[in-house]
Fold this sequence. Notes:
With 511 residues, the protein is α+β, with helices and mostly antiparallel strands.
Amino acid sequence: MSISDSDTEVDMPASRSMLELTCDEAAAFLLKQESYCRIDLPPYFRFDTLLASVSKAYDSGALTSNWTEKSRKHDGVNHPILNNKDGRYAWRPLQLIHPALYVSLVRHMTRSDNWKDICNRFVRFAGADKIMCLSIPVQSSTEESDTAAQVSYWWREIEQKSIELALEYEYTIHADISDCYGSIYTHTVAWSLHEKGPAKANRRRYELLGNGIDGYLGDMNQGQTNGIPQGSVLMDIIAEMVLGYADLELAKKLDGHIGTDYRILRYRDDYRIFVNNPQEGERILKCLTEVLIDLGMKLNANKTATSDQVVSESIKADKRAWISSRHSDPNLQKHLLIIHGHTSKYPNSGSLSVALADYHKRLMRRRTIQNPLSLISITVDIAYRNPRTYPVCSAILSKLLCFLESEEEKRDVISKIATKFSHIPNTGHMEIWLQRISLPFASDMSFGEPLCHLVQGKTVQVWNNEWISSQELKEAMDPALVFDDEIASRLDPVIPVKEVELFMARNKDYQ
């Protein structure tokens, strides 16, 4: 007699590590829309059709083995979306990698032999039992998005594991790498996969896998060797190669210099060091600094701190503050001002994004409000100073605009918002979201970001294709494929909760 599914309970994992995938599964995972672009964009921007088009051209065999190297002589190969970090002069250079280079690098890395070598090397990185890497990209095994699964994994493995370690350790040290992706020396990719000596002795691009990856990174950036593009899962796994190698080198350096009474948790460029002796913690920091310097990186001195409050320090400061503070008020404006006040101490924080998402849900239930312009002004000021909140603030603004009397007034407000943001550099990301808000009633409004031009049906160069000689590939690289008019035509003028929740997964650990 067979046993039905209802008679048994099987705990299926919510996600699995990318390194558990076969080479074909890894290629499919990296060529997904969500893996290619981790930048928060409106849903009518789709890259899967374009990636499929480029993949078809790649599979046709019309491209020569060294065709990508021609891109080194050209600027603007990748498309940058400079995401302002502090509302002033600091920014994170996110990039949409040239699809042809992206597809080619994915295919190169996921060849059967190459993918086997990569996975085996990560097994070696994991051999340092006192240092745990918890940031390998994961693939969701449920209906949850890969991004949400990744953040769930962060919450479970970093925050909860840190709290548990308070049973064993009296001190915790937090440290992170300054401008990690921007400071990665691309030659260290080869060092990480083959060790430094062999990689230096065999520099030819097609002799070692690591040198090949290094070559692709140079193709994307005019041959430069400092920095890798940020904004895709592909670059996350390449960064993990270098950081995994740093873990390995750190373990070697610590062996024999200090005892075994320590643990290190690493999530990408963020380190949490647990010790019972603060002097040993300082020695670990010294060794970590030396390892990173040898790889061309350094710790951020402003974000390095030691504490004997292991449990409380396991939770981010902004989250602790929000948990212990007053969250709401019956009055909509006072509620928004409470959130605004949180930004002064914890700008651009995950807890802020979650608080705004809750406010958005509350606002969506309202049929009438008083003083919509005041609420618009407060919301814009939050977005202006906290770029991380662009999507959710745009959702709030889309609802508030509905309470204005005319489309002319709505256009005027959008123009004022755009003018305000023009006072700070690199706000193309916000322009994309302003267009999303204004599209239903002012589709003719002009914005400078090239992706906005695609929405208006204009011919625009998103990626520089001058270096491509294959006519088939040039035709496959049609930027118009990025904009899905059908999705845009179905969008509600008011951004619904489900649309914003696509991005709120990144802050799920705050809930």
